[in-house]
TrEMBL record:
This is Methyltransferase family protein. The keyword Transferase applies. SUPFAM superfamilies: S-adenosyl-L-methionine-dependent methyltransferases. It comes from Diaphorobacter nitroreducens. Coiled coil: none annotated.
Length: 285
């Protein structure tokens, strides 16, 4: 369907933008790093200028915007259970000086686990960045099965997770607590006390655009609840969950941190879980 955006773009071209205006480190990390990694993996197997792409767990959509502006994608549909992407027009104005978003982008809020396959069948590629560790365990298989149904035969699905739960900062709480594996060593109450007591600035690259809505204390609660809801998936479990529903592994890369593991953890968890902090997984149908 042609939107107003399509007609404006047809008449006036893509709104000019300038990466020299970027001041926000979260924006930069997604506009540059995340988009470059997705382009490397997905652009390596699909032709981005002609591919129809779905981004599962698109968040604020900054990566999608960069895939269009910097890597030539022309059709990306982002879905998410939250509506952070509604901020993207403002963010793009502030960080790039763009007057309107490219018509190549569309977004949708979904209920967690809602089927997408009826409306989004036949896509060429699906990507999911830092999202699958947040999906509730019991929804993993139904969601993966549904994404499999969305993809056309011969299509590709790229998943990235970082940090993996058992890795040194797998709690996603590092912005408040820099002690490696603290979530595996301390109680929830102890962790919350550290977060609650935290004062001063946090790493700008880890502060998303939701921070302004929540405020300092609200953001602490939000981030801690996110930690408690993590599904604790390991890289092997992710691969097994995806291949169980029919995907084939094309290529994967698992990154490990080089750190001394405390003896108490070595006795409780496999060494590989404790050091493997990231997985890039390219799947095909
Ligand atoms: C850490 S954020 C990553 C967002 C984005 N990919 C990025 O790189 O900024 C995880 C995202 O997954 C979304 N999410 C969590 N569970 C989901 C589900 N069941 N279906 C769709 N999105 C989900 C969250 O709302 C959130 O936007």
């Amino acid at each position: 369907m042609r939107t107003l955006n399509h007609w404006q773009e047809w008449l006036f071209g893509v709104s000019p933008w300038d990466a020299g205006k970027i001041t926000d480190e979260w924006f930069r990390a997604h506009f540059e790093y995340a988009a470059d990694v997705v382009n490397h993996w997905v652009g390596g197997v699909l032709d981005l200028p002609t591919a129809r792409l779905l981004n599962f767990g698109c968040g604020d959509g900054i990566t999608d915007l960069a895939l269009v502006l910097r890597h030539g994608a022309t059709a990306i549909h982002g879905v998410d259970i939250r509506q952070e992407y509604a901020k993207l027009p403002r963010i793009a104005r502030e960080q790039l000086g763009m007057r309107r978003l490219p018509a190549a982008l569309s977004f949708e809020t979904i209920r967690s686990g809602a089927s997408l396959a009826q409306r989004h069948a036949g896509v060429d590629g699906i990507m999911s960045w830092s999202t699958f560790e947040h999906v509730q365990r019991e929804q993993l298989t139904p969601i993966l099965r549904d994404l499999y149904a969305c993809l056309r035969p011969g299509g590709y699905f790229f998943i990235q997770i970082e940090p993996l739960f058992y890795s040194p900062f797998g709690s996603h709480l590092r912005r408040y607590d820099d002690v490696p594996w603290h979530h595996l060593l301390a109680s929830e109450e102890e962790l919350w006390k550290i977060i609650e007591a935290h004062e001063g600035p946090i790493d700008a690259a880890e502060v998303d655009f939701g921070f302004a809505d929540f405020g300092v204390d609200g953001y602490k609660k939000f981030v801690f609840n996110e930690y408690r809801a993590l599904n604790r998936l390991t890289a092997d479990e992710l691969v097994e969950a995806t291949t169980d529903v029919g995907f084939h592994v094309v290529r994967q890369e698992r990154r490990h941190l080089d750190m001394e593991v405390p003896q108490s953890l070595r006795d409780r968890y496999p060494q590989d879980w404790l050091l493997n902090n990231e997985i890039f997984l390219l799947l095909s149908k």
